[in-house]
Fold each of these.
Amino acid sequence: MTDGAVVGVAGAGAWGMALANAAANAGHDVVLWGRDGEAMRAMQASRLNPKLPGVRLADRVAAAGDLAALAPAQAILVATPAQATREAAARLATLPGSAPLVACAKGIERGSHAFMTEVLRAVAPGRAAAILSGPSFAADVAAGLPTAVTLAAADEALARALCRLLHGPNLRLYHSTDVRGVEIGGAAKNVLAIACGVAAGRGLGASAVAALTARGFAELRRFGEAFGARGGTLMGLSGLGDLVLTCSSPQSRNFAFGVALGQGLPIAEAKARGLAEGAFTGAALTEMARERGVELPIAACVEALVEGRLDVAGAVGALLGRPPKGEE
């Protein structure tokens, strides 16, 4: 990968635009692709994205609705939602060349229980797969505020090269080969952030939110260890770092979704306010945990709440009613 490379971004939502601007700030020409051709033409003309108000596309970013515009890219960031990553990767697999694909969604595919890099490898086997995750809000990254994230690939040389490619004046990247650990941190923290949001919306106090964050991290760690994640990764940016951010800010769509539930909003209405990845990941996370004999009481309550098997009062009661035990 060379200086001044073309970087592709597939997915023109808030996160896709933020990553496109970050790559441009790192000194590259960027192609931002979205499947709605009319919307992409409007974005190219106005330099604005309604999903990220107040932020302009960087000068070096070209918005395109034609998939072929991504062909020159030396790397493609897949910034679609987790449950849409398979469809996006299948389209990208038809492009010429072998540019690596970097999953930028934080989730687990429902039904298949596949992590994001597993999805990429399944539908685009001719391309290397990597994962980017960490404590990062799209608005912060797009505005050029200081942010640090982790990028992992099984091939350390590739991870290093991708980090060098995307590293910019306000976006610091750390490389890793612990792909699974980075994926698990990003996926699990979304589910746990919903629980913290519920507590906040219910008015249970800061102490309850702090307790849920800490005990949620214990669940994340147990789950990660069961799937071979490294402890250092889980304690790092993509694990504990992202959990703390997501469980403490209304900027987090998962936290905000939980707040809405805690305030009594019906699940359908809460979902209609915006995508909360944790609402889709919860079932996969808890099913996978049960298969490995891993106990995730907080995540299980979130899953039951989102699936309508438990109301907020029942979820709070289920957690508080658990028998005393030693802290791990």
Note: Residues 298 and 319 are 7 Å apart (CA to CA).
Amino acid sequence: MRVVVATDAWHPQVNGVVRTLTSLAASARALGVTIEFITPEGFPTIPVPTYPHLRLAVPGMRRVARLIEQQRPDAIHIATEGPIGFAVHRYCRRRGLPFTTSYTTRFPEYISARVPIPQALSYAILRRFHAAAAATMVSTPSLLAELKQRKFSNLVMWTRGVDTELFRPERAIDLGLPRPIFLTAGRVAVEKNLEAFLSLDLPGSKVVVGDGPQEPELRRRFPRTTFLGLREGPSLAAAVAAADAFVFPSKTDTFGLVQLEALACGVPVAAFPVTGPRDVIADHPVGVLSEDLRAACLGALHVSREACRAFALSRSWENSARQFIGHMTRVAAKQRSPQPSLALGAATSR
């Protein structure tokens, strides 16, 4: 089976969506499924005002149609609700083609944290976008229940995995900092709620891995925090494995893949009891969830690192890929019913 995935998030961005899609493609390939991507590569781009280091693609419909038709996919998946996602959404709707979507980012909360746009309006737009999909994939039961309450339809589960070969305890390096080391990793931006972590009175050291628009401000306000900047691959794994506790202060993430990556390194998680941490950690003895984040951080120091590693070993990307492929197989079956062909040469001549 051949699947086309449309995504506005792609390399060189470093985030959970990019890591998820990259891991999905590798695992799907081993299962005999080819995944091709439509990404910002090759399209004109414009800067994102609140993220100067990011740029949004400006996709032309003719080229989008040509890219899809060249691949002749059995199924189409839209991973993001950005310009590329909307372009492929429009392509499929015009031709009556079934497709699936993912709900991976809380855009209403992210937007309202920056500009005075009501969350209700943003959710209405997203609800309409996903309503046309044969299925909308979500990563956790909590998020599925929340979106149901917001009147989203056709929701299905697509869980996440972790690369336990890349993220493992043996990669730990000596950061040369007083212990215990409390570390967080991800985009340094207001929606990640890093201030809730950095303002805590904790022993030892606080470390932030990642970059983003809020980094200069946080460096000024919290000079005793160590900022390691952007790290990827083995360098990221080495820094995470060096920590005594992984702190996940975000209250808006739909999953938080970095939690699984920390656990694979044998590092327990401290977080608020919200969607994402509540689903990843739940009642497993691999972290501490509390409205008192300081108490969660201190409690995490007493969690078994061996238990964290064992928990992560049961969360493979292969299982995640099988779940995704199952959803796409059902879409492919719908596509084989009497409908317009994907290879519509006329589309590129409009």
Note: Residues 339-350 have pLDDT under 50 and may be disordered.
Amino acid sequence: MSKALLEIKNLRTYFHMHGYTVRAVDGVDLAVMEGENVGIVGESGCGKSQTAMSIMRLVPDPPGEIVDGEILLKGKNLLKLKEEQMRKIRGNDISMIFQEPMTSLNPVFTIGYQISEGLLLHRDMSKGEALAESVRLLKMVGISDPEERVKEYPFQLSGGLRQRVMIAMAMACEPSVMIADEPTTALDVSIQAQILRLMRQLQESKNTATMFITHDLAVIASFTQRVMVMYAGVVVEMASVGDIFKQPLHPYTQGLLSSIPVLGESKYAEDGSRKTLYTIPGSLPDPKRTIQGCRFTSRCSKVMKKCYEAEPELVFTEKNHQVRCFLYNDQVRSTPSHLDVSSSRKSRSRKKKKGKVRG
């Protein structure tokens, strides 16, 4: 029976600033299996990136603080490790592709030096061996003339090439878990497709589990198997990617999906007027304010009286579909173990293999 590779339990990351507290991550639970791709979606400010920074233990303290919860990597609680112990895990067992490579790469060091740094620290290589491995990694991520590129500085590379360098750095020590925070946001569509294809190839060859953070639902549909939707620091829905797109349950998820333009659909209504793309009314709640009840009440078209009185729990409905909404309280079933997720993945894998044989 399969066990979670990375398990997050009741994670709470708060920021204490100017006399008030921002609950950036407020009770997140997530289990990621070996080789699984999990997507995390939501608006800017919903807590996606802070969840990732908490896992990496990179939350700036002060003003940030992980006030509660557990982050278990192969059963080891990362929150109880000393910083020296955590340095041995970052980049080795768990790595991260940051949102903007130009600010993540050091402008005064060559590409080869920056890739070699992790190899020297974690893989006990000589400088010559680390440089040769850096060339191999650049070639692996599809960068031409890698022997010359290792001598160049970040400003000499295009955005797409810098992102490939970040992927090479993240994969250098063959981590068990890779976190990708908006890795394709600043890239044009053709480069996005290349980066996603590359990440999928590397993930499949190394069986690395991936957490893919983005606001782009099209990317989520093409890359992940399971999706976690966040809003105002909490998880509002979690299900397989197919269930999220075919049958979204939470009004917020429904709003996100309704905001996506449909390819081939007419831009004009029957009366000749131009259609406008749907937008969710309002904005995220004020992070300074403690919210009574559901966090989505001010923007929800299906709000009820009890939504203002208490916050709904994240509950399971059918097919391992989790949702935080009072609309589904009558559909609640007993909470399954993480093994349910694993077994469903195995079932999909067997179907895939059968399909290949028939083909």
Note: DSSP finds twelve helices and twelve strands in the chain.
